[in-house]
Amino acid sequence: MKNFTRFSGRSLRKLLMSFSVLFCAAAINAQITITNNDMPSTGNAIRKSANISMFGADYTSAGPDFSWDFPALFPLTQSVDTFVSVSSVPFLYQIIFIPNIVANLAMPMGSFDLIPGLSVADPYYFFKKSSSSYNDVGFAVTLNSIPLPIKYNTPDVLYKFPVAFGNADSSYSGFQLGVPDLGYAGIDRKRVNHVDGWGQLTTPFGSFDVVRMRSQVFETDTIYIDSIGYGTTIQRNYTEYKWLGNGFGEPLLQVTEEGLLVTVSYLDSLRDITTVIGKQEISKTGLQISPNPFSIHATINISIPEAGFVDLSVLNVSGIKVADLVHEKMSRGLNSIRIDISEINLSPGIYLLKLVSDKEVVTRKFIVN
Predict the structure, then answer these.
(1) Same structural domain for residues 235 and 140?
(2) CA-to-CA separations, 89 to 106, 149, 153, in angstroms, rounded
(3) Which of 23, 31, 142, 339 could form a disulfide with 121 if both were Cys (CB 3.0 to 4.6 A apart)?
(4) Residue 167 and residue 207: Cα distance in Å, rounded?
């Protein structure tokens, strides 16, 4: 009996050790879930790198216990998203985005180009975070000293909690706004979210346990600008792929696909952009088109630090190439190109001017009247 007891003790220790190994392995490979505790909070400052290509990497595939390896990503630009309390934004915005009722989080927008003749100040996005969801509730800008807080008719539900593998949801949002002597703008949006994978993501920032969400967005944008007598309606269908981890506030990686146009952002540490990009860096002001908007003729100015081949094309808002302008070697410094609307057959609308040089890609938005 004594020998049997001693043998049983050894067996029990081995059995417990086996269970421990299995438990640790299961914990390592277990899927995570995302809750409101993983969303941004007031005071957060989140650094992101951005590019406009995944360079052939497979970012669409997903599934359970999946591995997404993108260690070769590199930034063309970096930015920091900062989150502030709604009570800290201009008071007239607070009347619409009532603090802690309509919105409990605000984020200043980055600088952006708008229609010439309109001054832009104090642009913000507004969000509502709760235990059940994280919603985009609208935005606000001050145009020509006129505050314009724009609350969506119903919130755009970015995440419904918990975010877990296999979950799906949808939402409708939008707004309509008319301002005398300025114009009209409106958005109608349907978002369909599907959590289609979980596993591990690797980027230059590190390796992380994640869940992957695919969001399909169907949107109609309408705009009319009184000052130039121009208006248009644009149908946009785009897909957002988001990799979410615990405690990071924003997606560790997000790839947005609209037609052939791909934009990429990922959480990152501070990078020396000039070192990452290399000698063929094109400065932010290295691609300009004027006048903008234009009706017949325009001049494109390209400034490059080193001589090399440049590819210049025009994309529509869906990212589809509609015109080839230049594919030639350009000299160092300033290069100017004059374009004639009749030669490239562009209908009135909004377009992207895309310049590719070596690994560099620069885009500028322009309007044809």
Answers:
(1) yes
(2) 8, 11, 21
(3) 142
(4) 24
Residues 202 and 215 in one domain: yes
Number of other residues whose CB lies within 10 A of the CB of residue 86: 22
Query: Strand pairing partners for 241?
Result: 214, 255
Torsion of CA 36, 39, 41, 43, to 10 degrees: 170
221 and 334 housed in the same domain: no
Do 285 and 356 lie in a common domain? yes
Query: What DSSP assignment string belongs to 203-250?
Result: ETTEEEEEEEEEEEEEEEEEEEETTTTEEEEEEEEEEEEEEE-TT-SS
Residues 136 and 154 in one domain: yes
* Pair (169, 46) in one structural domain: yes
- Residue 311 and residue 323 in contact, taking contact as beta carbons nearer than 8 Å: no
* DSSP letter (8 states) at residue 293: S
CA 348, CA 225: separation in Å to the nearest integer? 13
The encoded tokens of residue 206 equal 């590190």
Burial group, residue 8, by CB count within 10 angstroms (0-12, 13-18, 19+): exposed
Residue 66: which domain range? 36-274
> Mean pLDDT in each 10-residue stretch from start to end of the chain (369 residues)?
45 48 47 96 94 84 96 85 96 97 94 63 96 97 89 97 97 88 86 98 95 97 81 91 97 93 91 51 62 83 80 74 83 82 79 75 78
The CATH number that applies at residue 310 is 2.60.40.2550
Q: How many domains does the chain have?
A: 3
pLDDT confidence of residue 361? 74
Whole-number Å distance between alpha carbons of 161 and 158: 10
DSSP-derived pairing of the beta strands 206-225 and 230-244: antiparallel
Residues 69 and 87 in one domain: yes
Dist. CA 27–CA 232, nearest whole Å: 53
Q: Determine the Cα–Cα distance for residues 268 and 252; give it in Å rounded to an integer.
A: 8
Residue where the block lists tokens 């969801």: 133
In a shared domain, residues 252 and 295:
no
Which residues pair with residue 174 across a beta bridge? 188
Q: Which amino acid is at 272?
A: D
CA distance 314 to 351: 7
The pLDDT value recorded for residue 111 is: 61
